[in-house]
Design brief:
By secondary structure, the protein is of the alpha/beta class. It is 33% helix and 21% strand. A 7-stranded mixed β-sheet has the order 16-17-15-14-20-21-22. α12 crosses α13.
Amino acid sequence: MAKYVAAIDQGTTSTRCMIFDHSGQIISSAQQEHEQIYPQPGWVEHHPLEIWERTQEVIREAVAKAKAQPGDVAAVGVTDQRETAVVWNKHTGQPYFNAIVWQDTRTKDICDELVADGGQDRFRPKVGLPLATYFSGPKIKWIMDNVDGVRQAAERGEAIFGNIDTWEIWWLTGGPNGGAHVTDVTNASRTMLMKLATLEWDDEILDILGIPRQMLPRIVSSSDPATWGTTAVDGPFADAIPVCGDLGDQQAALVGQTCFGVGEAKNTYGTGCFMLLNTGTNLVPSKSGLLTTVGYRMGDEPAVYALEGSIAVTGALVQWLRDNLGLISRAPEVEDLARTVEDNGGIYFVPAFSGLFAPYWRSDARGVIVGMTRYVNKGHIARAALEATAYQTREVLEAMKKDFDVALKALKVDGGMVFNDLLMQFQADILSVQVVRPKVAETTSLGAAYAAGLAVGFWNNLSDLQANWQTDKTWEPVMEEDTRDGLYQGWLKAVKRTYGWVE
């Protein structure tokens, strides 16, 4: 009898394989970073084949650490960095171009042309998204417009597209030898090409962007009892294991946090920061700069929707302090450096490196540090960098209150930054809401495992998953209201200083 479920978590900076038992506890884990490619300002790329190589390596390492034998792993789930786009040859598996990462802004001209013809929200009623460089659809068009031969290959049915989930599942299930070309509803909802109401590709938008429908993967449920194939016996699992769970990383965290009730919310602190609020089976259009997205779909059940606030740069700002400025040598040192000062010294750091995402959607913005005086030192810069994450989260929560009239009692948090006590306390203070970290903070991988395990009956229902969730630590707000409001007003003033930097 199977004892475990495996998850492949393909993120922006690294790939991880985690193996979980029935109680949702981590049995083993392996992680490898991959190269971040910056060909010019605003462009961000990954090598797709490097990502697949790293995937194979971490699978083998995690399986070895777990001492898993054939038959021990019941199913495999995949979660991914969502809007990162790959186009490859279905016969050879060779990418036509590097993966264009979700942070990349090269499609600004494409988006501007589309906006000029109908406004930034011209597709929002169908897809729940504004026109922005963030999403996959314009990236596909850019590749076809700029890489020789791709458009013709797509029209012949040779060139196929996928977000990274599709790329990983295709290889896991055989690649050129019959690999499944699928994507789940959550990842499809991030392409700007899927109708939220019907969960189908939209022919009108495909026609406007000039994308042949045959390039696109088949849209499936996040947890699919039919499965899409099994791992190749000569592959990294060396066992025919059903591949049957797929969720975008933020939706996977929603599932991993068991936010199955309407009005429940989670916030994931990774390269960027992403808050999702479960709105049930109701499609809630946002008038406040949020995204309407699919939260998950389990089997043949109706899709569950969510409002999302997407923030481009949070953990990536700490990496920037480490790699570009050399203020710290390891990411965890940022908390110690920030604790050398009592406050931010009057400065605010708005990290609009790729423009501003929710709730502004300003691709013309760029990062600023404001309020500088001779008094300011590197401790203040570290503290302001951490506080930026909390302020941006408050902006998203304020927008959610406008769209959904939610009175949030607690915010479930996960991701690498939730072990930073200074940040989590400031987050509770600036929101005036309890912040709760679960015992298993790797909820993105856990959500992918849950989706796969549900599909094969490893877990019976959502109640089984809720029974696994346990609190690890809670932060209560202690800041005075006047202080909280004053700090936040200063942040809003700083944000305005980022506007209009790119002509």
